[in-house]
Amino acid sequence: MRWLIMLFAISIALPSQAISLRETRLQETLKEVAEKSSEGTPRAMNDDITDEGFSANGSELINHLSVTSDYASQLQRDPILVRSQLQASVCADQRFRRLMDMGATLTYHFVINQSDTPVLTQSFVSDHCQSL
């Protein structure tokens, strides 16, 4: 009976340790990606958008972007169009797809230039690419 209880306890503990190890590896990978992707930031992507760099928070990789106030108005005017364009871009990028397949959430966070005023935030997971 003791062996049965011990075997049962081990069978419960092993999957949770595997999940924990997988989450830890994902978090480490996202931190590395954020550091490498942030090199040379801030960098202008065009006249309206500046890439301020990436950060990692748990299983989320966040791309911080600042935009002009005019462009912020455009983003807020049609958030569905913005989302579909971002989704197409994210899902076409094999590096991002691999991260999302590992369980990552990829988030774009837009603020107005020279401030922390939020404009728009869009997040994507692997399932969002299945419909494309």
Describe it.
- The chain has 132 residues and is α+β, with helices and mostly antiparallel strands.
- It contains four helices and five strands; from the N terminus they run αβββαααββ.
- β4 (105-112) and β5 form a beta hairpin.
- The protein is globular, with a radius of gyration of 19 Å.
Structural class: alpha+beta
| Mean of residue pLDDT values | 88
Principal-axes geometry comes out as globular
What is the subunit organization of this protein? single chain
The percent range for helix content is 40-55%
Strand content: 25-35%
Series of H and E elements = HEEEHHHEE
Largest sheet: 5 strands, mixed
Give Rg in angstroms.
Answer: 19 Å
